[in-house]
Write a structure and sequence with these properties.
Blueprint (H helix, E strand, L loop, with lengths): L1 H14 L5 E3 L5 H11 L5 H10 L2 E3 L2 E3 L15 H12 L5 E6 L5 E5 L12 E4 L12 E3 L2 H27 L1
Antiparallel strand pairs: 1-2, 2-3, 4-5, 5-6, 6-7
Helix pairs in contact: 1-5
Length: about 170
């Protein structure tokens, strides 16, 4: 189910053509492997495919962190490995996690390898609150895997656009 969710999410990303939608584009296998090496983890299949195909980017201002460059020590968002390593140093983020998004002035959204699914190896998407959450604390799950998370997020963004568009039509009458 997770890979089919990712595929649907990627199709919807293509539909989301908008001035505020941008992705850095495909990343090489070597670059993705370097990011995995820097983090000491091999990405789960859905996130790995996303990073290989899209790299990182945003849809209508909502960022999806991925791999942008090999600068994992002094980078910036949306370079997920850089932010993950930074959070490990500054906020005790466990080494089993990879940051994939940040929600406004709230939590980081992360993939958690320590809770990998025994069937397909996918990692759940969880919330980590820098400065609040401590290693070992129970984490809130927001999706069973990256594919499901991407699909959920893109659908919400497109639904908002549809609502805004319909509202704009109503204002013109």
């Amino acid at each position: 189910m997770s890979m089919s969710d990712l595929e649907e999410g990627l199709r919807l990303v293509e539909r989301a053509a908008h001035p505020r939608t941008f992705f850095v584009g495909p990343r090489t296998e070597e670059l993705v492997a370097a990011a995995e090496g820097a983090l000491g983890l091999r990405f789960p299949a859905t996130y790995r495919r996303f990073v290989l195909e899209k790299g990182a980017g945003s849809i209508r201002g909502v960022e999806f962190y991925g791999v942008t460059t090999t600068n994992f020590l002094n980078g910036n968002v949306p370079n997920g490995p850089w932010l993950t390593l930074d959070r490990r140093r500054a906020w005790k983020l466990p080494p089993s996690m990879v940051i994939i998004q940040h929600w406004n002035d709230g939590p980081d959204v992360a993939l958690d390898a320590s809770q990998a699914d025994s069937v397909d190896g996918e990692w759940p998407v969880v919330l980590w609150r820098p400065g609040v959450t401590q290693p070992g604390d129970p984490l809130e799950r927001v999706a069973p895997d990256f594919g499901s998370f991407l699909l959920q997020q893109v659908r919400q963004l497109l639904d908002k656009e549809d609502e805004n568009y319909e509202g704009a039509d109503d204002d013109e009458d």
